[in-house]
Amino acid sequence: MSDYLIRATACNEEVRAFAINSKDLVEEARASHMTSPVVTAAMGRLLTGAAMMGSMMKGDKDLLTLQVLGSGPVQGITVTADSHGRVKGFPNVPIVEVPPKYEGKLDVGAAIGVGVLRVIRDTGLKEPYVGTVELKTGEIAEDLTYYFAQSEQTPSAVGLGVLVDTDYSVRAAGGFIIQLMPNTSDETISKLEENLKKLPTVTSMFDEGKTPEEVLGLVLDGMDFEITEKSEVAFECDCSRERVQDSIASIAKDDIQEMIDEGKPVEVRCQFCNKKYDFTIDDLKEML
Ligand SMILES: [Zn+2]
Q: What integer pLDDT is reported at residue 80 of this predicted model?
């Protein structure tokens, strides 16, 4: 198993925790969209957070969407996660360059800019749940922490990291989410704060080859905890030729006729995974 996430409870369920190794899924996203390093980091952090939040959902068909919209050159990133560890996503602008924050540190906040984080949870009800908060830093982890506090009244600590190698591939990626339940004692809170203060950066832990279990071991050091779930996660899109065909067929007949008259085959790319679908003139005629 390469990428996986674990879920744990600590201190008699005062605390719930998640940790994930997401290197392969972030690399898959990068290779699909051919993103520049800072966009790989931004999209990778959002995908990593979404995968953990997806695992918080209970329904088989529940779908979580995280959307960051900002004034920076990336403009926006949209990712989705289901409750089975499948994530997918795309940046509005895949290639962006911003000066590093300092040597070797990508400036994700500058690439995103000021804006909002939107969380949409579709659990099959008539109206999906939508929560929107202002971006705190555009660095994603802080923004998700703020979202949990503001919209879900759940004090949380979120750590996300993506390390891009010199050849632009993803060298390491992962993260954790720690959440306090309403009954958390002051003692547990101060112990957690102490642990988080001395915790190495998320990228350095995963780059050293630490597993999600070991990362949680450090975050929950000195506390009783039990891993209750371990599951695979992957970048996976559910697009298909049939779906794309349906979406073409749903546009106005005149527009399809226009494409036929132009005499050029049509190329449609899936927004989420960038997969290309080609339709010949004959295919288009058949749709009419
Ligand atoms: Zn797709």
A: 98
Query: Residue 264 is part of a domain; what is its CATH number?
Result: 3.90.1280.10
Give distance in angstroms: CA of 271 to centre of ligand 1: 6
Residues of the chain with pLDDT under 50: none
Distance 245 CA to ligand 1 centre (A): 13
Q: What is the pLDDT of residues 4-30, one digit of tens each?
A: 999 999 998 999 999 999 999 999 999
Distant-in-sequence, close-in-space partners of 209: CB < 8 Å, separation ≥ 6: none
Same domain, 134 and 249: no
Question: Are 163 and 280 within one domain?
Answer: no
> Using the 8-state DSSP alphabet, how is residue 35 labeled?
-
- For position 1, what pLDDT does the model report? 52
Distance (Å, whole) CA 19 – CA 158: 10
Q: By C-alpha distance, which of 51, 28, 41 is closest to 232?
A: 51
pLDDT at res. 151: 94
Q: 161 and 249: one domain?
A: no
Residue 88 CA to ligand 1 centre (angstroms): 8
User: Residue 231 is part of which domain span?
Assistant: 4-235
